[in-house]
Amino acid sequence: MTGSDCVRRNGERMPPDQETEHSPPGGAFAKASTLDQRPDQRFEFWRSLFPLIDLDISDKSRIRQFKARLMRYEAPDGCVFGFGSNDNTHARFAKPQGEFILLNLTLSGRAELELGDDRRHVIDATSGFLAIDGTRPFKTRTYGHATLWMTFPRPMVAAILGEDVGLLKEGLAFLPQNGLSRILETHLQMIAREGDGMDERSANIALNAAADLALGALSQAQSPNDSRSARLQDSAILAAAQRHIHASIGQLDLTATAIAKAIGCSRARLYRVFAMNGEAVGDAIRKARLNLAATLLTNRPDLSVKQIAHECGYADAAAFTRAFRGTTGHTPSEARERQQ
After folding, report:
1. CA 126 from centroid of its chain's CA atoms
2. How far apart are alpha carbons 32 and 41 in whole angstroms?
3. DSSP classification of residue 66
4. Which of 16, 143, 150, 323 is deepest in the core (most CB within 10 A)?
5. Structure confidence at residue 219 as a pLDDT band (50, 70, 90)
6. Do residues 150 and 210 make contact, with C-beta atoms less than 8 angstroms apart?
């Protein structure tokens, strides 16, 4: 768990001797690996990346073989994404500089977390997201630990959860493993996977979406009677549902029931959230399908109308043609001819 230190380096790039060839020219994400360093410098290099953490290696005899890597990006609003792994270490987080909330997801290995009052928690890949108040001192021991994390400026979270951030009154909280947190997990994994190809604009878009999902997941763990929490949950549910629609547009069984199940809310609430946005769920699905169809008709002349129908979630070309003509006044073939 080295993520909480990174938010305290706002606006800083890694020193030139700590940047690696793994970061493509113009790429938004800073990357570093100890394998790019001389064996006698690997751990000191890793420790230098986290100057605000008292960090040490657990097995001194393996210091020359120490393996660790880090991928990081900071958005303009102060949210930070991180993805990393490291050999066994122990650390003391006790040098606060700025207020932040850390959201951490263990992918493999385990971490033992000790808070200042001697409470201990073991976190592994089954634990889900852990939220930590970055102003509280704590210690960690990690064992073959790989993790995804985000940090958020405390005022951003306080605007939703209240100034006392009641969810974290004990210093930490495990988030429910429900629809929003599962979608957030997938989204962060995709950022880690696709980060090499992202420029700054793409990275900001990806982190903005992650922040929406993360704040929504945090608010779901807050008191359900909190009106601010409810509003954010509604916003997060709408965003998650829209993303699911676009990701699953080719599925024939894409219905309100399927969407509600996928994102972890009731069908009634899904209907209400869309209605508050001035749209019905079914209309949103049809609109997404027809928008994709119009794009494919224009940009994919190699695809037949029947193929486009299947790509857009219609059972056959006849059903696609009826829906398309009912909205545009033209058949798909006529629309394609007009474009040409």
Report:
1. 18
2. 14
3. -
4. 150
5. confident
6. yes
Residue among 339, 340, 336, 282 at smallest CA distance from 308:
336
pLDDT at 95 > cutoff 80: no
What gap in Å lies between CA 94 and CA 84, rounded to an integer? 21
> Is pLDDT of 197 > 90?
no
Residue 267 corresponds to which tokens in the numbers above? 């069908």
Side chain identity, residue 166:
G
| Alpha helices, H only, 21-151 | 42-48
Specify the pLDDT at position 138.
84
Residue 154 neighbours by CB under 8 Å, 6+ apart: 99, 100, 101, 134, 135, 165
Contacts of residue 188, defined as CB under 8 A and 6 or more positions apart, other chains included, come to: 81, 83, 105, 148, 150, 210
CA–CA separation, 156 and 154 (whole Å): 5
| Structural domains of the chain sorted by starting position, each given as residue range(s) with its CATH number in brackets | 3-223 (2.60.120.10), 243-339 (1.10.10.60)
- Which is nearest to 214 in space by CA: 235, 244, 190, 241? 235
Tokens representing residue 6 in the block = 């990174």
In order, the DSSP letters of 186-240 are HHHHHHHHHGGG--HHHHHHHHHHHHHHHHHHHHHTS-TT-HHHHHHHHHHHHHH
Helix (H, G, I), strand (E, B) or coil at 131: strand
pLDDT tens by residue, 265-298: 888 989 999 999 899 999 999 999 999 999 999 9
List of E strands, 48-137: 54-57, 68-74, 80-86, 89-93, 100-115, 120-124, 129-133
In this prediction the pTM is 0.61
Burial class (CB in 10 A: 0-12, 13-18, 19+), 126: exposed
